[in-house]
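NCS2 family permease
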Amino acid sequence: MEKFFKLKEHGTTVRTEVIAGITTFLAMAYILAVNPTILSEGGMDKGAVFTATAISAAFATIIMGVFANYPVALAAGMGLNAYFAYSVVPMVKEMGVQDPWKVALAAILVEGIIFIILSLFKFREALVNSVPANLKYGISAGIGLFIAIVGLKGAGVIIGDASTLVALGDVGSAAVVLSIVGLLIIGVMWHFKVRGAILWGILITWVLGMLAEVSGWYSGASTIPNLAPENLLPPSLAPTFFQFDFSFASSHLMEFIMVVFAFLFVDLFDTVGTLIGVADQGNLLDKDGKLPRVGAALLSDAVGTVAGACLGTSTVTSFVESTAGVAEGGRTGLTALTTAAMFIIALFLSPIFLAIPSFATTPALVFVGLLMMKSVLKMKFDGDIADVIGGFVALIMMPFSYSIANGIMFGIIVWVILKVCTGKIKDIHPVMWVAFALFAIRIATLIIG
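Structure:
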């Protein structure tokens, strides 16, 4: 183990790595409750999604640990799963497709294969660098707002309104009250640096929900899990395993390309940004500030995405929560292997994770949205007007149009047009021209129906 992971060289021990791996798992285990809830709203089998989420996370994290030797864990990414369920599925459903989630899985499979190719030829990092920084930060912050509004809607904190579009929900209902209490719990635990604060927030809110159900205050779907021995085996993968629908691509090619591109674009710089951030905190960058073995790390992420699509879950990506393990001293792939082992163990706790109601996951969604919103602090609101407006448009269009893809689309289109109008056409990278052309065609198809 010492020879394989080079523990002494990285100034760590087996005990430190194991503790770090468990810490990382606690920081990101909320995905086991949140992801099935989100994707099930897109029509997928909740139990199968849980199993797919756990297995794909374990698989991708093992690859990261063994081949890249980094303390980075992977799982179905927040934001990308919301785009899957609340943007792609409704769009495809409107076109009369049965089981639209199968089309979304097909798009993720294609995205993953493209990423594998880009990673093998070392194009991926270069592509990330072609996207303006302000646009990156605006998209990240916009995804944070989008995730937050999804969570608030799920608990009924905000509701639709014919006059004002949105309005405050029933503040006396159990779901609304408990979701707000859960957010406060996470905030207090985060302040006191409690490990797994987000997960604990979900679990405590859930327990309070069970008490509310017993008392008669909460009358929604049952929150009490069935812990009979026969129910402790992981739910079957059959409903989602290799469930791809490529027929949509043949009849609606442009729409399919747009979906693939949106998945690609978000995952593109999200992964690199996470890897750089985790490596920087763990002092794993070289003297030039670059990430050693970056090719292996990116390839691990891409293979994880393909595996996740085959199993039946949204895009698998590197989790920034890996920094929790790094803060505990994790420096090698042994940390990642420990986290992967925890995901495998979690497979046998499915009744617990699947019984967690949406109002209990709302605090997690809102808090993760808060963490992603921090990117707005890096945005520049003066200087190049294309960067300023492009980033801002991307940020506001995601929550207000309820679509991550729309935010990316309008952000890029506005950025390119302003660059041209301000005489800075030479600043536009070929990748941005390609993105502009794709989105322009998409808008044209929307206009002409």
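The mean pLDDT is 88.
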